[in-house]
């Protein structure tokens, strides 16, 4: 019987294995695919967004739509600065970008992978080893691998990742763990409006995106794509509204405020009376988008602001502050598929990551109902939960 079996060779699983090893445990990692750390490799376009710039625990937990304040005991034990120090100490210099994301100075995820694998060199790693059954036995667990071999362990750290379907969580449901149905998080909004789609590639650095039917909004950069809208504000909103949008089968209204924190009157007063509307463009709005908004408001472009009608002025202000579209569907954000859902956090002791009703079983990473917004927060949750589980194993 081995001391610890870690199910899953992703970021959370490998970090847990490394920290269990530090406790003197005999550790086996079972990974169903033929390679480790796949998500680390492709994250951030191959650059790997390791974590986010250091912040207080109170601020950090605000970036997790599922969990929030309940995650304080977890992140109090492993903060963003701890992640940064861990990799820096292992020869991976890091940099903090303007938006707070943290990457290796090399912009190469392989440096992160190398640091992890070096630290895990004494871990028994078994690839192509899918756990197909798990049973609680006296003094531990019995795990079936590929419907064939079995392995016994005193402790099990479950890091098998999120699943897009509930069926992918059946292994844990059979053990009696409560499951929150998984739905996608971190996705872009599909809007079939050709004049808008033709502006693909344009962005506004500080707009507000609002979902009026569920009364949620976020501000920040918004990117227009050939299928609709993306960018940090959209992705953050998709994460916090993930369940409500799933319930609506991804049919919803999206309202854009292109000039943030302005009233109708503010917009009207911001224009130069003597300039033509083509030349009255607000600085934060790209030229092509401005022409589109003028056309959308049916405002004459070659006329000075003082010479257009009050009705035109009001129409333009309304478009700038309440530009509304029908969205149908979503698009996954690049390769970084994230799910909202998994094992209910109520069933986990978030000080240790141990299942409350199944001693010796630890649940970490996206398998738990923890997901963060884009910006390094999902990896931070992986490192933190992996470290806490690995540190708290009790194999003696």
If you had to describe this structure to a student in words, what would you say it looks like?
The chain has helices spanning 11-22, 38-46, 57-60, 72-75, 80-89, 109-119, 170-174, 194-197, 232-240, 242-247, 264-270, 287-296, 310-321, 377-392; strands at residues 2-7, 27-30, 51-52, 94-96, 101-104, 124-126, 131-137, 140-145, 149-158, 179-185, 187-190, 203-211, 216-224, 228-230, 251-257, 323-328, 330-332, 338-343, 348-349, 354-355, 361-363. The longest helix has 16 residues, at 377-392. The protein is of the alpha+beta class and 396 residues long. Strands 1, 2, 6, 7, 8, 9 and 21 form a 7-stranded mixed β-sheet that branches. A 7-stranded antiparallel β-sheet has the order 16-15-12-13-14-11-17. A 3-stranded antiparallel β-sheet has the order 3-5-4. The chain is elongated, with a radius of gyration of 25 Å. The protein has 2 domains: 2-183 and 336-392, FAD/NAD(P)-binding domain (3-Layer(bba) Sandwich); 187-332, Elongation Factor Tu (Ef-tu), domain 3 (Beta Barrel), CATH 2.40.30.
Defining key terms:
FAD/NAD(P)-binding domain; seven-stranded mixed β-sheet; elongated; 30% helix; 2 domains; Elongation Factor Tu (Ef-tu), domain 3; alpha+beta
């Amino acid at each position: 019987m081995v001391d610890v079996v870690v199910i899953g060779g992703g970021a959370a699983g490998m970090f847990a294995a490394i920290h269990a090893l530090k406790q003197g445990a005999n550790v086996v990692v079972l990974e169903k695919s033929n390679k480790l750390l796949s998500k680390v490799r492709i994250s951030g376009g191959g650059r790997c967004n390791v974590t986010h710039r250091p912040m207080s625990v109170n601020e950090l937990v605000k970036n997790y739509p599922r969990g929030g304040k309940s995650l304080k005991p977890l992140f109090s034990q492993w903060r963003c600065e701890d992640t940064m120090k861990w990799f820096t100490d292992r020869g991976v210099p890091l940099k903090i970008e303007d938006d707070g994301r943290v990457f290796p100075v090399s912009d190469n995820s392989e440096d992160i992978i190398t640091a992890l694998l070096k630290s895990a060199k004494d871990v028994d790693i078994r690839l192509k080893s899918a756990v197909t059954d798990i049973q609680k036995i006296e003094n531990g667990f019995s795990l079936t691998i590929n419907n064939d071999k079995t392995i016994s362990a005193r402790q099990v750290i479950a890091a098998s990742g999120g699943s897009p379907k509930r069926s992918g969580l059946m292994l844990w449901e059979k053990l009696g763990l409560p499951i929150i149905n998984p739905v996608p998080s971190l996705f872009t909004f599909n809007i079939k409006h050709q004049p808008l789609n033709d502006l693909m590639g344009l962005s506004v650095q500080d707009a507000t995106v609002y979902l009026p039917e569920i009364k949620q909004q976020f501000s920040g950069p918004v990117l227009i794509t050939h299928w609709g809208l993306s960018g940090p504000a959209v992705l953050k909103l998709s994460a916090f509204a993930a369940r409500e949008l799933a319930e609506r089968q991804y049919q919803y209204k999206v309202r854009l405020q292109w000039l943030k924190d302005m009233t109708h009157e503010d917009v009207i007063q911001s224009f130069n009376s003597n300039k033509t509307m083509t030349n009255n463009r607000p600085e934060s709005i790209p030229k092509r988008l401005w022409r589109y908004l003028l056309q959308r408001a049916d405002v004459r472009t070659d006329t000075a602001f003082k010479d257009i009608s009050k009705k035109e002025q009001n129409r333009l202000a309304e478009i700038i502050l309440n530009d509304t579209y029908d969205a149908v569907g979503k698009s996954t954000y690049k390769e970084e598929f994230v799910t909202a859902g998994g094992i209910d956090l109520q069933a986990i002791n978030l000080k240790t990551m141990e299942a409350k009703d199944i001693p010796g079983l630890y649940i970490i990473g996206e398998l738990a109902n923890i997901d963060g917004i884009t910006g390094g927060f999902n990896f931070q949750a992986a490192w933190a939960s992996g470290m806490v589980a690995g540190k708290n194993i009790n194999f003696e």
